Amino acid sequence: MHKIIILIQYLLLTTTLVTCDFQAPPLSNSFGTKDEKLKAEKQQKFPPCKSCTVFIESFKKGLEKTERGKHEGGDAHWEEKKLGSYKTSELRLVEIQEMLCTDIVRGEQQCHTIAEEHESEIEYWWKHQEEFPDFFKWFCIDTLKVCCPPNRFGKDCLECSDCSGNGVCKGNGTRKGNGKCKCDNGYDGVRCDACGSGYYESFKDETTLLCSECHIACESSCKGAGPRNCQKCKTGWFQKENEGCFDINECMEKSPCNTKSHFCVNNEGSYACLECDKSCSGCEGDGPDMCKECAYGYELRDGMCADLTSEKRDGYVTFTRYCLYLGLCITVCIIFQNSTWLAAIFGLIVGLYISLSEYWLKNNPTPKQPGQEILEAAMGMN
């Protein structure tokens, strides 16, 4: 019995050593912060005019949801009378107030604050809405005085500057700002009626100015489209008389990169140093087939630098495994040397175990590393 226990322990030890390289990848889990972001957006604070505008939009949605159309059939005159009374009833106002600010993603808290602090003003407008049909104008501009009409700005709602359609008035529609023009990208001047640095006039008449961006090769100004019209070339470009700016290929003669570990890639007006494949000691491009020399632990095979480390490791593992099998067979012979039948039975079991182990290893190869899978996919090897 003691001999059998020793044999079983040896089998378990062998199984552990054979399968030790097969480890399941670690499980990973990540928790999003979508709810936290949504909560932050709801609590986000807007300027006074914007928050009032958000409130008005929510109120108008409530008006649309509580609007009741006529039903098919029945007494149309009776329906029109009933719907007319409901249209301005306190019941409808209560229904709208119950759903106020519930459909807002950003600024919900401010919307609720306006609804609570100005409930009396809202009820007053509701009773006099025929006299003041524009709720936004009555509430945000005339009553709360946090907004101005379009093209007006500041505390007294003064008239905005004319920005020629190429900019916006600072403070437009609010009680803030100075009324001066904030020009769109590419435009300049007090009235945004000139092209900015790096732009040229592509079209202009009495009412319209269109500015287009200069070519990437131009330093700051140009006379028209393309690199031919640059007045001065940027660094990384050279200028030919009457022909314009041309890109300098920094990688052409001597590479500005560390040639032992990087290779040079030319870009428009510049260059980039990209890292060589780990199998290379100096390279002319990306991948193990572009190496000038193979790095330590790699060998040139079929035009590519192949990793010898994994091959040596696999050979060592195979040699160790067969040594364990041999030791197992010798152990069975020693333990059961006085019993031919027991030696034959356990020899058969050991042989079956070795056969199943080799079959399993053959059909369940070691999982590849992610980098190896990507490389083989790029080269069309799988």
UniProtKB/TrEMBL annotation:
The name under which this protein is listed is EGF-like domain-containing protein
Q: Which GO terms describe its biological process?
A: animal organ development; system development
Report disulfide bridges, numbered on this chain.
C183-C192
For this UniProt record, the keywords arranged alphabetically read as follows:
Disulfide bond, EGF-like domain, Membrane, Signal, Transmembrane, Transmembrane helix
Q: Give the Gene3D superfamilies listed for this entry.
A: Hormone Receptor, Insulin-like Growth Factor Receptor 1, Chain A, domain 2
Listed GO MF terms: calcium ion binding
Locate the transmembrane regions by residue number. Answer: 341-361
Q: Which residues form the EGF-like domain?
A: 156-193
Signal sequence span is 1-20
